[in-house]
Amino acid sequence: MDALDPFVRHIQARVALTDEELQELLAVFKLKKVKKKQFIIQPDFVATHRSYVLQGALRSYVVDQNGAEHTVQFALEDWWISDYNSYLYQKPATLFVVAMEDSTLVQIDYMTEQRLKAANHKFETFFRIGAERTAAYHQRRIISALTRTAEERYNDFLEAYPTAAQRLPQYAIASYLGMTTEFLSKIRHDKVKRKS
Protein backbone atom coordinates (compact mmCIF):
# COMPACT_ATOMS: atom_id res chain seq x y z
CA MET A 1 0.00 0.00 0.00
CA ASP A 2 1.28 3.42 -0.94
CA ALA A 3 1.72 5.95 1.88
CA LEU A 4 -0.57 8.38 0.04
CA ASP A 5 -3.46 5.91 -0.35
CA PRO A 6 -5.55 7.47 2.45
CA PHE A 7 -5.14 10.89 0.80
CA VAL A 8 -6.10 9.46 -2.60
CA ARG A 9 -9.28 7.98 -1.06
CA HIS A 10 -9.99 11.35 0.59
CA ILE A 11 -9.76 13.11 -2.78
CA GLN A 12 -11.79 10.49 -4.65
CA ALA A 13 -14.59 10.66 -2.06
CA ARG A 14 -15.03 14.36 -2.85
CA VAL A 15 -14.47 14.77 -6.58
CA ALA A 16 -14.25 12.53 -9.68
CA LEU A 17 -10.85 13.02 -11.32
CA THR A 18 -9.23 11.31 -14.27
CA ASP A 19 -5.98 9.46 -13.54
CA GLU A 20 -4.07 12.35 -15.11
CA GLU A 21 -5.88 14.95 -12.98
CA LEU A 22 -5.29 12.90 -9.84
CA GLN A 23 -1.58 12.68 -10.59
CA GLU A 24 -1.47 16.43 -11.32
CA LEU A 25 -3.10 17.15 -7.97
CA LEU A 26 -0.93 14.74 -6.00
CA ALA A 27 2.24 16.09 -7.61
CA VAL A 28 1.89 19.51 -5.96
CA PHE A 29 1.50 18.20 -2.41
CA LYS A 30 4.67 17.79 -0.37
CA LEU A 31 5.13 15.09 2.25
CA LYS A 32 6.25 16.49 5.61
CA LYS A 33 7.18 14.64 8.78
CA VAL A 34 6.93 16.53 12.07
CA LYS A 35 8.01 15.49 15.54
CA LYS A 36 5.84 15.63 18.63
CA LYS A 37 5.81 19.22 20.04
CA GLN A 38 7.03 20.68 16.72
CA PHE A 39 5.17 23.81 15.59
CA ILE A 40 4.12 24.14 11.96
CA ILE A 41 2.44 27.54 12.42
CA GLN A 42 3.12 30.29 14.96
CA PRO A 43 1.55 33.71 15.52
CA ASP A 44 2.99 36.67 13.61
CA PHE A 45 4.22 34.45 10.74
CA VAL A 46 2.06 33.93 7.65
CA ALA A 47 0.62 30.42 7.31
CA THR A 48 1.95 29.49 3.89
CA HIS A 49 0.50 25.94 3.85
CA ARG A 50 -2.57 23.94 4.67
CA SER A 51 -1.93 20.41 5.92
CA TYR A 52 -3.74 17.11 5.56
CA VAL A 53 -2.91 14.58 8.28
CA LEU A 54 -1.86 11.21 6.90
CA GLN A 55 -0.80 9.98 10.32
CA GLY A 56 -0.58 11.60 13.74
CA ALA A 57 -2.33 14.34 15.68
CA LEU A 58 -2.09 18.13 15.67
CA ARG A 59 -3.74 20.93 17.62
CA SER A 60 -4.37 24.59 16.84
CA TYR A 61 -4.77 26.99 19.74
CA VAL A 62 -4.62 30.61 20.84
CA VAL A 63 -3.17 32.03 24.05
CA ASP A 64 -5.18 34.71 25.85
CA GLN A 65 -3.79 37.73 27.74
CA ASN A 66 -3.62 35.65 30.94
CA GLY A 67 -1.52 32.96 29.28
CA ALA A 68 -4.37 30.40 29.09
CA GLU A 69 -4.48 28.19 26.00
CA HIS A 70 -7.76 27.77 24.09
CA THR A 71 -7.84 24.90 21.60
CA VAL A 72 -9.56 25.80 18.34
CA GLN A 73 -9.16 22.51 16.47
CA PHE A 74 -7.63 19.07 16.58
CA ALA A 75 -6.55 17.25 13.44
CA LEU A 76 -6.04 13.51 13.36
CA GLU A 77 -5.85 11.17 10.37
CA ASP A 78 -7.96 12.34 7.40
CA TRP A 79 -8.38 15.87 8.80
CA TRP A 80 -7.03 19.20 7.54
CA ILE A 81 -5.47 21.94 9.65
CA SER A 82 -4.06 25.43 9.24
CA ASP A 83 -4.59 28.94 10.55
CA TYR A 84 -7.20 29.47 7.84
CA ASN A 85 -7.53 33.21 8.32
CA SER A 86 -3.78 33.59 7.87
CA TYR A 87 -3.62 31.09 5.00
CA LEU A 88 -6.56 32.45 2.99
CA TYR A 89 -5.69 36.13 3.44
CA GLN A 90 -1.89 35.66 3.60
CA LYS A 91 -1.75 37.72 6.80
CA PRO A 92 0.20 36.96 10.00
CA ALA A 93 -1.18 33.99 11.93
CA THR A 94 -2.90 34.28 15.30
CA LEU A 95 -2.87 30.54 16.05
CA PHE A 96 -0.24 28.07 17.10
CA VAL A 97 -0.43 24.72 15.28
CA VAL A 98 1.62 22.02 17.00
CA ALA A 99 2.10 18.27 16.57
CA MET A 100 0.80 16.29 19.54
CA GLU A 101 2.32 13.08 18.17
CA ASP A 102 5.01 12.35 15.60
CA SER A 103 3.01 13.04 12.45
CA THR A 104 3.11 12.71 8.67
CA LEU A 105 1.39 15.43 6.66
CA VAL A 106 0.82 16.32 3.05
CA GLN A 107 0.93 20.06 2.47
CA ILE A 108 0.06 22.48 -0.27
CA ASP A 109 1.19 26.09 -0.38
CA TYR A 110 -1.16 28.99 -1.00
CA MET A 111 0.08 30.09 -4.44
CA THR A 112 0.09 26.53 -5.80
CA GLU A 113 -3.47 26.03 -4.59
CA GLN A 114 -4.59 29.24 -6.30
CA ARG A 115 -2.97 28.16 -9.60
CA LEU A 116 -4.59 24.72 -9.40
CA LYS A 117 -8.05 26.16 -8.77
CA ALA A 118 -7.70 28.58 -11.68
CA ALA A 119 -6.56 25.81 -14.02
CA ASN A 120 -9.26 23.20 -13.38
CA HIS A 121 -12.74 23.62 -11.92
CA LYS A 122 -12.58 20.07 -10.47
CA PHE A 123 -9.65 21.14 -8.29
CA GLU A 124 -11.61 24.21 -7.24
CA THR A 125 -14.56 21.93 -6.36
CA PHE A 126 -12.29 19.73 -4.23
CA PHE A 127 -11.06 22.68 -2.16
CA ARG A 128 -14.55 24.24 -2.00
CA ILE A 129 -16.02 21.04 -0.55
CA GLY A 130 -13.27 21.06 2.07
CA ALA A 131 -13.96 24.70 2.92
CA GLU A 132 -17.71 24.04 3.23
CA ARG A 133 -17.13 21.11 5.58
CA THR A 134 -14.72 23.18 7.67
CA ALA A 135 -17.26 26.02 7.91
CA ALA A 136 -20.00 23.57 8.97
CA TYR A 137 -17.71 22.00 11.58
CA HIS A 138 -16.87 25.39 13.11
CA GLN A 139 -20.55 26.38 13.15
CA ARG A 140 -21.41 23.17 15.04
CA ARG A 141 -18.64 23.94 17.52
CA ILE A 142 -19.93 27.47 18.15
CA ILE A 143 -23.54 26.30 18.58
CA SER A 144 -22.43 23.55 20.94
CA ALA A 145 -20.40 26.00 23.03
CA LEU A 146 -23.39 28.34 23.26
CA THR A 147 -26.17 25.83 23.95
CA ARG A 148 -24.77 22.65 25.54
CA THR A 149 -23.70 22.04 29.11
CA ALA A 150 -20.08 21.12 29.83
CA GLU A 151 -21.01 17.47 30.35
CA GLU A 152 -23.07 17.41 27.14
CA ARG A 153 -20.12 18.87 25.21
CA TYR A 154 -17.84 16.20 26.64
CA ASN A 155 -20.30 13.41 25.79
CA ASP A 156 -20.71 14.81 22.27
CA PHE A 157 -16.91 14.84 21.88
CA LEU A 158 -16.62 11.22 23.03
CA GLU A 159 -19.34 10.16 20.61
CA ALA A 160 -17.98 12.09 17.63
CA TYR A 161 -14.28 11.39 18.21
CA PRO A 162 -13.88 8.20 20.31
CA THR A 163 -10.28 7.57 19.25
CA ALA A 164 -9.30 11.20 19.81
CA ALA A 165 -10.42 10.97 23.43
CA GLN A 166 -7.98 8.08 23.93
CA ARG A 167 -5.04 9.73 22.16
CA LEU A 168 -5.19 13.37 23.22
CA PRO A 169 -4.10 14.68 26.62
CA GLN A 170 -6.81 15.71 29.04
CA TYR A 171 -5.62 19.35 29.24
CA ALA A 172 -6.03 19.71 25.45
CA ILE A 173 -9.52 18.16 25.44
CA ALA A 174 -10.58 20.39 28.34
CA SER A 175 -9.27 23.45 26.51
CA TYR A 176 -11.14 22.41 23.35
CA LEU A 177 -14.38 22.00 25.32
CA GLY A 178 -14.01 25.35 27.09
CA MET A 179 -13.41 24.09 30.63
CA THR A 180 -10.57 23.59 33.06
CA THR A 181 -8.75 20.29 33.31
CA GLU A 182 -10.03 19.97 36.88
CA PHE A 183 -13.64 20.38 35.77
CA LEU A 184 -13.17 17.78 33.02
CA SER A 185 -11.70 15.40 35.61
CA LYS A 186 -14.79 15.91 37.76
CA ILE A 187 -17.11 15.16 34.82
CA ARG A 188 -15.16 12.00 33.99
CA HIS A 189 -15.13 10.92 37.65
CA ASP A 190 -18.89 11.49 37.95
CA LYS A 191 -19.52 9.45 34.77
CA VAL A 192 -17.51 6.53 36.18
CA LYS A 193 -19.35 6.75 39.50
CA ARG A 194 -22.74 6.67 37.79
CA LYS A 195 -21.76 3.56 35.82
CA SER A 196 -20.65 1.63 38.92
List keywords for this structure.
196 residues; alpha+beta; four-stranded antiparallel beta sheet; 9 helices; 8 strands
What does this structure look like?
With 196 residues, this protein is of the alpha+beta class. Helix content is 52%, strand content 21%. It is built from nine helices and eight strands. The protein has helices spanning 5-12, 19-28, 84-89, 110-119, 121-147, 150-160, 162-167, 170-177, 181-195; strands at residues 30-34, 39-41, 49-55, 58-63, 69-75, 80-81, 96-99, 103-109. The chain has a four-stranded antiparallel beta sheet. The chain has a four-stranded antiparallel beta sheet with strand order 2-7-4-5. A hairpin with a 5-residue loop joins strand 4 and strand 5 (69-75). Helix 4 crosses helix 5 and helix 8 (170-177) crosses helix 9 (181-195). It is globular.
Please outline what is shown here.
This protein is an alpha+beta fold. Helix content is 52%, strand content 21%. The protein is built from 9 helices and 8 strands.
Number of helices: 9
Major beta sheet, strand line-up? 1-8-3-6
For the termini, the CA-CA separation is: 44 Å
**What best-fitting shape do the alpha-carbon axes yield?**
globular
How are the SSEs placed, and which strands pair?
Blueprint: H1 5-12, H2 19-28, E1 30-34, E2 39-41, E3 49-55, E4 58-63, E5 69-75, E6 80-81, H3 84-89, E7 96-99, E8 103-109, H4 110-119, H5 121-147, H6 150-160, H7 162-167, H8 170-177, H9 181-195
Antiparallel strand pairs: 1-8, 2-7, 3-6, 3-8, 4-5, 4-7
Helix pairs in contact: 4-5, 8-9
